[in-house]
Amino acid sequence: MQWLTNIPSAADIETAHEAIGPHIHRTPVLTCRAIDALSGAALYFKCENFQKIGAFKMRGASSAALRLSKEQLKRGLATHSSGNHAQAVALSAKQLGVPAHIVMPEGAPVIKRAATAGYGANIYTCANTLEARESTLEEVVEKTGAAFIHPYNDYNVIAGQATCAKELLEDVEGLSALIAPVGGGGLISGTALSAKYFAPGIPVYGAEPERVNDAFRSLQAGSIQANSRIDTIADGLRTNLGDKTFGIMQAELKQILTVSEEEIVSAMRLIWERMKIIIEPSCAVPLAALLRYPEPFQGKRVGIILTGGNVDVEQLPF
After folding, report:
1. What phi-psi label fits residue 176: left (phi over 0), alpha (psi between -120 and 50 degrees) or beta?
2. Final residue of a domain: which of 85, 114, 148?
3. Domain named Tryptophan synthase beta chain-like PALP: which ranges (predicted)?
4. Do 78 and 18 share a structural domain?
5. Which CATH number covers residue 86?
C-alpha cells in the first residue's frame, strides 16, 4: 500500500480494508429491542469491543503499519498513548515481528498498560501532559529510529478507522444515520468518509462529553479549540483534535452532540444490563447523545459504533 499524504479516497479505504483483513476481526452488529423502545429508533451497534485488543484502534494501527516499507518496519513502531492505541501499535508490531516503543503517561489505566506490556512492547513513562508525551516520544524515536504512528492525526490511520463504518454499512441495509464518539477525531473522520463514499446522503453525528467538548467548540469557531480540562470518565475522549481530522470533520460532519457525565454513566450501565456486553465509558457517549437528543433519530435506523471494552472492572462507576 502507498503511504497516504492526502485525505483517503474510497479506493484508499477499500485497499486498507483488504490489507488489514488478516490482522483484525470483522466485528458483529448487535441489536437490543429494550434500548430501541427507550430511544424510539432502531439501533444497530457495531461492536468494536470484540475487536483485537478490545478496541477499534487496531484498524488504524494496522493500516498505518502495513503502509511502511520493510526498511522502516525493521526499526520498529513507536507511539504515545494512554491506552487503546498503545495496545494496537504493540500488537501490530508483534504481528509483524518488529519492536514496539510506547510512551504512556503516568496514571494511564492499569488494565491498558498491562495489556500493552503483555504484547511485548517497551514502555516509557512520562508526565500526564501532551507536551511530555511528545517530547519523550521524540527522544525514543531519535534513539531507536522507530516509525511514529500517530494515534489519530494521520491519513493512514484514518483510512483504517474508516473500515469500521464501511463494514457496518455493508452489514446493515437502509441505515438513516451514523453516530460515533469523538476524541482526537480519527474514528469520526473515517466514519464520515465511509458514509460519504459508500452511503451518500447519510448524516454522521459525533458525540462527546460536555467536559471535553473541544470538537463541538472547534466546529462552532471554525478553528481548533483545546480542552482546558480532562476530568471526564470517558478517558478515551480527552484528546484534542488534529488538523487532518478537523478538516475532514468540518467538511463532512452533520453535528456534534454533547452529554453530561451522568448521562454517560447511565448509558454505559444500560448497555451492560440490557445487552449483556462490556463496554468502556467512551463507548457509551453516542447512545447517551441519542437518548438526550432523540428528535433527529425518531423512527430511523441508526448505526452506533461501540468503540471498545477495555474497562477496569475494579473501578466501575456503578
Report:
1. alpha
2. 148
3. 22-308
4. no
5. 3.40.50.1100
Which residue type occupies 102? Answer: I
The dihedral over CA atoms of 58, 124, 240, 185, expressed in degrees to the nearest 10, equals -10
Tell me how many domains the chain contains: 2
Mark out the alpha helices in the chain (DSSP H runs). 10-20, 33-39, 57-66, 70-74, 84-96, 110-118, 130-144, 155-171, 186-198, 214-221, 243-252, 261-275, 281-292
| pLDDT (tens place) for every residue of the chain, 318 residues total | 889 999 999 999 999 999 999 999 999 999 999 999 999 999 999 999 999 999 999 999 999 999 999 999 999 999 999 889 999 999 999 999 999 999 998 888 788 889 999 999 999 999 988 789 899 999 999 999 999 999 999 999 999 999 999 999 999 999 999 999 999 999 999 999 999 999 999 999 999 999 999 999 999 999 999 998 888 999 889 889 999 999 999 999 999 999 999 999 999 999 999 999 999 999 999 999 999 999 999 999 999 999 999 887 888 888
Question: What DSSP string runs through 260-310?
Answer: -HHHHHHHHHHHHHHH-----HHHHHHHHHHHHS-GGGTT-EEEEEE-B--
Residue range(s) defining the domain that contains residue 108:
58-148
* Shared domain check, 168 and 23: yes
